[in-house]
Amino acid sequence: MLTLVSGLGLATAASADAPPRHVDATPNASFDEYVPGAAYLEGRLLAPCCWDASRQTLDIHGSPIANELRTEIRRRLKAGETTDAIQEDLVRRYTTKILAFPPDNPLPRMGTVLSIGLLGAGALAARMVLRWRKKSLTAPVAPIPATAAGPTHDEWDDRLDRELDEDES
């Protein structure tokens, strides 16, 4: 039993000394400079150190590898490379895991599917409302029978009236 407890203590101490998976680095001052296409690419690419955990894109992640990639992207864009060429090179180096939306991801198509579905539902609802209005305008209005208007005065009403009169006096 003592061995198990001391073993747990050593494991805890060893894990406390282990460095974290990544350390936030201070962003480069050049990140404040506007470079056409940089924000587009940085928002479409994931930080390689966090593919499994947080899945943060380069534009919001602060690890050293993310900062290196941001610096590389900005340098290559300033040199005249296109965003597509840079993205293809990074995909070749890191595989499609670097893409925030991989090519086989159905999410971009869901907007179209949902839009078509909402338009169809709206058209059906409008058709139903128009049919109901048409029926209500053409239907004859029947008089309300006296029995449907409500119950007549009965003994319970008389009793309630008497008790209320007694309370008032």
Description of the molecule:
With 169 residues, this protein is mostly helical. The protein contains seven helices and no strands. The chain is elongated. Mean pLDDT is 76; it is low at 1-20.
Molecular shape:
elongated
Strand residue percentage: under 5%
What is the typical, i.e. mean, pLDDT?
Answer: 76
Tell me the number of helical segments per DSSP (H or I, 4 or more residues long).
7
Element-by-element helix/strand order: HHHHHHH
Largest sheet: none
Low-confidence segments, given as residue ranges, are 1-20
State the end-to-end distance. Answer: 87 Å
The helix-and-strand class reads: mainly alpha
Taking all Cα atoms into account, the compactness measure Rg is 36 Å
Oligomer: single chain
The helix content is 55-70%
How many β-strands, per DSSP?
A: 0
Write a concise synopsis of the structure shown.
The chain is mostly helical.
Features:
mainly alpha; 7 helices; elongated; disordered N terminus
Set down the secondary structure blueprint:
Layout: H1 2-17, H2 38-44, H3 64-78, H4 83-94, H5 107-138, H6 146-149, H7 155-168
